Fold each of these.
Amino acid sequence: MKGRILTAKILVRFKKYLLLEERSAATIEKYLRDVRAFIAFANGAEITKELVIGYKKHLQENYAVRSVNSMLASINSLFAFLGWLELRVKSIKLQQQIYCPEEKELTKAEYVRLCKVAERKHNKRLSLILQTICGTGIRVSELQFITVEAVRCGEATVSCKAKTRSVFIVKELQRKLLRYAAEQTIKTGMIFVTKTGKPVSRTNIWREMKALCEEANVNPRKVFPHNLRHLFARVFYSIEKDMAKLADILGHSNIDTTRIYIISSGTEHRRRMENMHLIL
């Protein structure tokens, strides 16, 4: 165990390993962020199993279970890369959630209000970003694949996490996006870009969405880009009831991931229980 100290050089090697493993940029960023947090906790100390267990306890005291497991997965990946297999720790067992807390579920009505407020604030780009994510189910990182060419043919080819899939763009969204591109004199390439022609960043989208909350009367805790993807999933499933097809549309390799997206709200879950009429 002696000499097991995490250094900047190890981080560089780990990043190179993740790149060669063809992990997405977002995944690499997250893994490195999680590892840096662990290094800060270790504060130069030798990495022992006791230290890692102590870090796990620290995370449990400060984060939700899913977040803890996600951060543990990052440092376990580092240990596997370094061959420090005996330092890996177990994730926390979590019972599958059967309903989504109301305070976290963005409703269709709230989504509509957010779009309308964006329009009133003359932020057409943001309104269309919301509609594009919610109307196609793509990730915010996949907005770069919404190009003039893709919109014209009504289908975008999206590459993410070493997988490629086709994303259909409905006619009404096609019309809106092409009109916006024409207004912005965007004749080719990405539609959602900054004034300098770079892709709109996730951070900017998040910040602009939060600025809509008060006027739209929506809880800020519900308002972030990925929740639009969840809304798409719930609406699609309520109509089609085809989880396998939804998994393909969302680009999920594991259908259990898709199942998380379509859990009903606590209110809906409670209503269904009331309708069982099992209390005499």
Amino acid sequence: MKSFTAISGGIIPLGRSNVDTDQIIPKQFLKLIQRTGFGEFLFHDWRHEPDGSMRPGFILDDPAYKDSKILVTGSNFGCGSSREHAVWALCDYGFEVIVASSFADIFFSNCIKNGLLPARVGKEDALTLMQKKEARVDLISQTITAESHTIPFEIDPQAKKILLEGLDDIARTLNLEEKITRFERDSKTPSIL
């Protein structure tokens, strides 16, 4: 996982609340066994008609938002089932930051595990950001700057550390290898073999 310190990029304003993981990546696309290849199916049912043809007018398909890295949305983003594929789809599409006034807990945790910054802001601040074209998101200072507005965001200190250092679960465990080895060596528990 790469470390995250700051990015600048375009904003896609998705003014919807209670966006669940089934809407982010529908169940029929969960057959892939790797973490890539999901981006093209992001918000599939909102972007396509039942016959598979493109539904006109969905914001992700607007050329003005091509290559945007920041998604700004309503409250309770990532609710529903706990599928990590939703985060994989957002990352694979190219998003590096999701801004919302609240996130579902498991979704938030999955974002951190995959290097996607979930930036929690106030509802009014999210609405302000939805009116902007571009922003700079700085994890170190925990601020989002868009034009003349600087908005602070909340993030747990441990989650911040994980993102800044680019540590996935395996890397975090390997950082404790010396302590784990010492514990195993010094353990008084008799072996069952």
Amino acid sequence: MKQIPWQNKPADCKDIMWRYSENPIIGRNQIPSSNSIFNSAVVPYKNGYAGVFRCDNKAVQMNIHVGFSENAIDWNIEDSPIVMKTGNTDMIDSDYKYDPRVVFIEDRYWVTWCNGYHGPTIGIAYTYDFKEFFQCENAFLPFNRNGVLFPKKINGKYAMLSRPSDNGHTPFGDIYISYSPDMKYWGEHRCVMKATAFEDSAWQCTKIGAGPIPILTDEGWLMIYHGVINTCNGFRYAMGAAILDKNQPDKVKYRTQSYLLTPQVNYEQIGDVSNVVFPCAALHDIEEDKLAVYYGAADTVVALAFSRISEVIAFTKNNSL
């Protein structure tokens, strides 16, 4: 198994999660066309890594681009957006694409993103080689965001987390799960987790959304998610964790009351949108007990943070709401 990015915890760090010392790993101007690169997804691919990146251009049009890396830290991102071919549908209209996730299921890589079709909904595509991408039917009606697939079928069906929303900068939001027999028709929608009451856990009291692809552990599905509080300075996004039941992932076993990571350093607090930590991808090694989380910082750059899977699980269980 290839080595995932890793940096040992600093001796003076008392937190469960710690930042990579060379953050941000992807700057806003890494390709000629970009105004910002953030909220992106990476996966192991062949002898290295591949990714799908949110790159807002200098007209601030939102689109997704492919990229490759040998070490999952130094990335070569293509300057032109991904051009979709038709997959299980001829309808591949899209006003914008942003906040992608990527996962390998069975025989191909699936990409989900927030797709512009009369408002935000969940777009789906697949690729075998990160060269040709085939767009499928949108999963849901507008309005929806944060579509995150599970890495394996559950009870014989594909499963996806999402956050029903509105057409604006949503001032609310809960996490739902939906199922599909064929990656085209989605149903059996169930509520997984709601935003908290302010007095219970204020950092996630306004809205929440699924982040990286869930990780299957002995305790259940480890789901890293973002939570939002609406402050006098606007929304502030932080990162938390939950453990979902293996066979019924709409059942939450544990959920962090305290955050794992919140905006505390310059590149998270200052940018196009201040005070944002937004996780979209994670690389993990169960045997070595390592977790590397990729997150968008201040809607401007991509950063990286680390933790021990066992410590995240213990923290989630011991500090659960």
